[in-house]
Design goal:
single chain; about 200 residues
Amino acid sequence: MMTDKNEITHQSENRAHALILAAYDTIAEKGFEGLRLRDVADQVGMNHATLHHYFPTKEALVQAVVFYATQRLGETVVSPEGTPTDQLRAHFRLLWQRIQEEPALFIVLTEVGLRAQRDPAIRAIVQPQAEGWLAFLVNILQAGIERGDWPKHFDAETVASAIIAVIQSVSLINVKLSPKRTEQALKQLEFWLLDENAESLS
């Protein structure tokens, strides 16, 4: 019986994805310095030599993990219906949901950010995502300034940069040690930017 070519491709993609997830979990737990290809292969029940069929080098696997992690964060950058304030609130809610459901993501993203400073290939993956997140927030804030949701003296890019800085800081430091502080920080952003009676994020 001949195996369907599409089925083979699908199986190959599934195995490659399993390797990416195993490497992702390892980086979240041990950092990049703890990433060993043999251990990753063992986690998915694969021979070490077979792993190289999917990822010829360790750098190729690392880049795949970086792409996966940035995509996961990028899923919170959506353009929902509603006013600019509705859109910003929805973004905060999506971020909080992702922080709760996948704290490892923000640990990996921090590791990636540090590595990107030294690795041009990683930086090339991360930079478009970072610029896209900033542009997403700037567009929302600028639209809100124009319709009077925020004061005219607000600088959309400065405020967007501050939002990103707060989220990056609290998601790394407090996501496992003190999730309550992360929630408090996001609620405070709502308080400052949306209204004085921000609903609970939970």
